[in-house]
Automatic annotation (TrEMBL):
Protein name, as recorded: 4-hydroxy-tetrahydrodipicolinate reductase
Binding site for (S)-2,3,4,5-tetrahydrodipicolinate: 150, 159-160
Gene3D superfamilies reported in the protein's UniProt record: Dihydrodipicolinate Reductase, domain 2, NAD(P)-binding Rossmann-like Domain
GO terms of biological process kind: diaminopimelate biosynthetic process; lysine biosynthetic process via diaminopimelate
Protein source organism: Companilactobacillus ginsenosidimutans
Entry EC number(s): 1.17.1.8
Keywords annotated in UniProt: Amino-acid biosynthesis, Cytoplasm, Diaminopimelate biosynthesis, Lysine biosynthesis, NAD, NADP, Oxidoreductase
Role: Catalyzes the conversion of 4-hydroxy-tetrahydrodipicolinate (HTPA) to tetrahydrodipicolinate.
Family annotation (CDD domains): DHDPR_N
Length: 258
C-alpha cells in the first residue's frame, strides 16, 4: 500500500486528488495538510477517521511514502523541502517555483536518494504539446507562448508556459531575436524568456489552455491544448506516483517519464 499525504487538500486540485486516491486500491490517504484550516477533525472534511489532518508542517509526525502538493506558489518550496527532508517522496503539481528553487530541491532529493517529481502539468495533452513544441523548435527560429487560465490563478506566467519556453530554448540553444525597433508602451508584447514572448490571459470561463505559435518565412504552426476538467490531470498524477516509488532522484517534468 502506498501511503499519501495531500497538501492543499481543500483546494480544487486537492479535492480531485482525494477522489482519485479513494478509487485506487493500492493508494491510501494517511494525512491531509493545509495551514489555513482551523479544525483538525477529519469528519469536517468528509475524511475517514484514520486520516490525520494537519495545519502545521512541524506537527506532521506520521509515516508516509508520498507527498502530493497542489497548494500555493508561495508555500510549495517549503512544503517540498519538508517532504524530502522527512524521506517522503514529493509529487508536486503546484506552480510558481523559480528555476533556482527547483535546482535546490533536486540537489537535496538526489543527495538523499529520495525519488520524486515536480511537474508543471500532469495533463497528457499539455505534455504532448510540450513534446511537439520541442520538435517544432528545431525547424522554426521564432515562437510565442499564449496561456489562458481561470481568474483565480495566482501566478503568471503559468508553470506550463514557463516550462514550454524553457524546453524550446533548450532545443534552440540561443535566444530568440525580435525586431530591435519595436516600441511597446504598455507591456503588450508580454513576458520574455530568452526572447520567447509569453502572454498570460486570466478570465472566467477558462480552466487551463495553452497555445504555442511558431513562425517562419511564409508559414506558421500552432500547437494548442485545452483543459476543460481538472480530472484530466489525475491520469498523470497516478502515473507519477507509481514512477517515483521506483526512483531515487527528483524528476523535473512529466515529459521525462511519459
Ligand atoms: N501541475 C499540474 O498539472 C497542475 C497544477 N496546478 C497548480 O496547483 C496549484 C493549486 O491549484 P488549485 O487547486 O486550482 O488552487 P486552489 O486555490 O483551489 O487550492 C490551493 C489550496 O492550497 C491551500 N493552501 C494555502 N496555503 C497552503 C500551504 N502553505 N500549504 C498547503 N496548502 C495551502 C489553499 O487553502 P485556502 O483555500 O484555505 O487558502 C487551497 O485549499 C496551483 O499552483 C496551480 O497552478 C493546477 C492544476 C494542474
Ligand atoms: O492553475 C492552474 O489551473 C494550472 N496550473 C498549472 C500551471 O501553472 O501550468 C497547470 C495547468 O495549467 C493548470
Amino acid at each position: 500500500m502506498i501511503k499519501a499525504i495531500v497538501s492543499g487538500f481543500t483546494g480544487s486540485m486537492g479535492q480531485k486528488v482525494l477522489a482519485m486516491i479513494n478509487g485506487e486500491s493500492d493508494l491510501q490517504l494517511v494525512g491531509a495538510f493545509n495551514p489555513i484550516i482551523k479544525s483538525l477533525d477529519p469528519a469536517d472534511y468528509d475524511l475517514d477517521d484514520s486520516v490525520k489532518v494537519f495545519n502545521d508542517l512541524s506537527q506532521i509526525d506520521i509515516a508516509a511514502d508520498i507527498w502530493i502538493d497542489f497548494s500555493i506558489p508561495s508555500a510549495v518550496f517549503e512544503n517540498t523541502k519538508f517532504a524530502i527532508e522527512h524521506g517522503i517522496r514529493p509529487v508536486i503539481g503546484t506552480s510558481g517555483m523559480s528555476e533556482e528553487q527547483v535546482s535546490e530541491l533536486k540537489e537535496l532529493a538526489d543527495s538523499k536518494k529520495v525519488g520524486g517529481i515536480i511537474a508543471s502539468n500532469f495533463g497528457v495533452s499539455a505534455v504532448l504539446m510540450m513534446k511537439f513544441a520541442q520538435v517544432a523548435a528545431k525547424y522554426f527560429d521564432h515562437s510565442e507562448v499564449l496561456e489562458f487560465h481561470h481568474e483565480d490563478k495566482l501566478d503568471a506566467p503559468s508553470g506550463t508556459a514557463m516550462n514550454t519556453a524553457k524546453l524550446i530554448h533548450e532545443v534552440q540553444g540561443k535566444d530568440q531575436e525580435s525586431n530591435p525597433n519595436e516600441q511597446d508602451k504598455i507591456g503588450a508584447r508580454g513576458g520574455d524568456y530568452h526572447g520567447i514572448k509569453i502572454h498570460a490571459v486570466r478570465l472566467p470561463g477558462f480552466v487551463a489552455d495553452e497555445e504555442v505559435i511558431f513562425g517562419g518565412q511564409g508559414e506558421t504552426l500552432t500547437i494548442k491544448q485545452s483543459t476543460t476538467d481538472r480530472a484530466s490531470f489525475m491520469k498523470g498524477v497516478r502515473i507519477a506516483i507509481s514512477e517515483v516509488m521506483k526512483r531515487d532522484e527528483l524528476i523535473i517534468g512529466l515529459e521525462k517519464i511519459i
